[in-house]
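Sat 14:20. Reprocessing the chain from the morning session after the first attempt stalled halfway. Input below, unchanged.
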Amino acid sequence: MAKSSENYILDMSVNRKAISEHAQKSMIFDTSAFISLESINILELVLSVFSIITTNSAIKELEEFAKHGDKYGRIAKNVLKHKSKFTIESCEITESIEYVESTDNELYNLSLKKKLPLVTDETKLVHHARHKIDVYFSPVFLILLLKSGHLSKQKALELLEELRNIRNWRNNMIYLITKNQLENL
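Finished this time. C-alpha cells:
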C-alpha cells in the first residue's frame, strides 16, 4: 500500500536508497508541479536530473494559464519552453477519483498504468490517490537536489520560502513538512 506524501518526504530525506531509486526513475508531473518548480527557477535543473512525463491534458492546462498576463501565465509560458525535455502521453481513464478534475484522473491513471510516482501540489489528489499510487509534493525536489549536491541547505530553504510566498502556502502541510525535513538534514 502506498504511503502518504508526508511519509514519502520523510522516507526520502533519511533514506539514501529511496533517493537513488527515485533519481533513476521517471516521474509523472501535473500542472501544479510544473508551476511550482518553474516559479522558483529549478524546473530546468529538475529536468536535467530526472525524467519527467506528463499528459496532453496537463499541457492544455499550461497553455490555458499561458494565455494570461499574470505571474502564473508567465510561469506557464516558461514551462512550455521546456516542453521538448519531457515526455507527453495520453492515458485512458479506467479508474476515476470522484472529487478531482479529469486532468488529475488522467494523470492518476497514467501513474497506475506505468507504476510511476505522481508529483502534484493538489492536496485533494494526494489524499484520494495515496493508497494506490506513490504521490509526492513538488518541494520534495528541494530535498532530492540537496541530497544529490545540486543545492545547498541554505539555498533549498530560501527556495522553499520563495515558493511558499509565490504559491501563497502560508503554513500549509506542504510547506511545513518540507521545511521540517530540510532543517533536519
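The chain has one domain: 5-183.
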